[in-house]
Amino acid sequence: MSKIQLSFFSQALEMNTSLTVLVPDDLKKNEQLRPFYVLHGYNGDHQDWTRLTAIERYLRNRRVCVIMPSGFNAYYTDHVVGLQYYTYFTKELVPFIENLFPVQKEAYILGLSMGGYGALKFALSNPKKFVKAVSLSGVMNPDFIRAIPWMAHRLPQFDLMFGKKTTGKNDLRHLVEKNLKSNRMPELLLTCGDKDFLIEDNRSFEQFLKEKQVPHTFIFDDGEHNWDYWDRGIQKALPWLFDENNTLG
């Protein structure tokens, strides 16, 4: 695949932003590629997936445009005070990609950790656009992070992002219930390793989806919160995303 490094100015963020894009080397005339947004986690950037996994090799035989933006530590949301990242992503980045590359309207999205939260947030907020979403070791409830003693140093930042409690458009459970009322739900695949510090957060969200009778696939398997797990996770997710023969687990 061809790898393209891009930078453009965001009005919403009031700064230059960077992203990495992968497209097939043999792009055909009038071909429309599936847009596939891939999100990094906290402390990461747009280069993480190409540096730390073999994503380019895994996708080499698929007709896809892979978009990997820098999400800073913004939790892919519009902050109460600070960055307006959700607006940047939905109102600027997606149209930018659609104007620059030959992509279809319906997109897939995947993310890890903070990016898992972002992937579900974007898909549940825009189910007509993001029709399939994957979370690898995702944060299902930012308030779960607030309660972890060794995460206490992030509390002031979380208050600026979400306020004192995560509610409304930033609450994945609220978004699920809103979609149930409108009868529009993206397809969901979620994974978490059994040694991950987010395992209970994920188990709680799985129970919520079951209680609400939301169709989904959840994989709890062996692993920790690290790139070894996420590299394996994306290999499992790709056949599910692209409707290929695959036995998950």
From TrEMBL:
Membrane-crossing ranges are none
SUPFAM superfamilies attached to this UniProt entry:
alpha/beta-Hydrolases
Q: What Pfam families does the database record attribute to this sequence? A: Esterase
Determine the domain of life of the protein's source.
Bacteria
This chain belongs to the protein called: Esterase family protein
- InterPro entries linked: AB_hydrolase_fold (IPR029058), Esterase-like (IPR000801), Mycobacterial_A85_antigen (IPR050583)
Name the source organism. Answer: Paracholeplasma manati
Residue ranges that the Swiss-Prot or TrEMBL entry lists as coiled coil: none
